[in-house]
Write a structure and sequence with these properties.
Low-confidence stretches: 1-7, 150-173
Strand content: 35-45%
Strand order of the largest sheet: 5-7-1-9-10
Distance between the termini: 39 Å
Helix content: under 10%
Structural class: mainly beta
Mean pLDDT: 74
Radius of gyration: 15 Å
Number of domains: 1
Number of strands: 13
């Protein structure tokens, strides 16, 4: 307990999520798009038996706020409430088999969320491990996490941009 672990490269994990702790600007987090990218493409609900996970819906059973919408390029804004009995918001993907996510991107920052901090977490075994943390900036697709080595669409190995530099711009895949 209380130990710090440094992971080299991306771990293989059965679930990946963005976690916003101590969000200061309201009781919900508007997310228009989230991407969890592996060497083989985007990991999303319906791919390899994966499903979307989120802390809670804003409007009960309203289909508009289902977590799956955050994985679509349809312009709908998905929002998540705080988890019950917690100050956390989370949004991600859970799969039956482990996957190695190389890049995590989010389109947020709308309705005053710029400046909030989010963490990228992977479920390794039975424990959520925080891999990186970044501050939301503006209304654009923002890279929140890039592993130490990323596999590009043209199938050549390239070093990933440091997260401190990557958080202000999208990855041009």
């Amino acid at each position: 307990a209380g130990e710090s672990h440094t992971l080299v490269g991306a771990p293989r994990a059965t679930a990946w999520r963005l976690n916003a702790q101590n969000f200061t600007k309201g009781t919900w987090w508007p997310v228009q798009r989230v991407k969890f990218i592996t060497n083989f493409g985007e990991l999303q609900p319906g791919v390899a038996g994966c499903e979307a996970i989120g802390s809670d819906r804003i409007w009960g059973d309203d289909a508009c706020t289902a977590a799956e919408h955050a994985f679509e390029d349809n312009g709908l804004c998905w929002g998540v409430k705080r988890a019950q009995d917690s100050s956390d918001f989370y949004l991600g993907v859970r799969c039956p088999e482990p996957h190695q996510v190389q890049v995590v991107q989010v389109l947020s920052g709308i309705w005053g969320t710029s400046g909030e901090w989010v963490s990228v977490q992977a479920l390794v075994g039975a424990e959520w491990v925080t891999l990186d943390k970044a501050q939301l900036r503006g209304i654009n697709l923002q890279t929140i996490y890039a592993s130490s080595v990323a596999w590009r669409a043209d199938w050549t190995w390239v070093p990933a941009a440091p997260v401190s530099a990557a958080v202000t711009s999208a990855v041009g895949w």
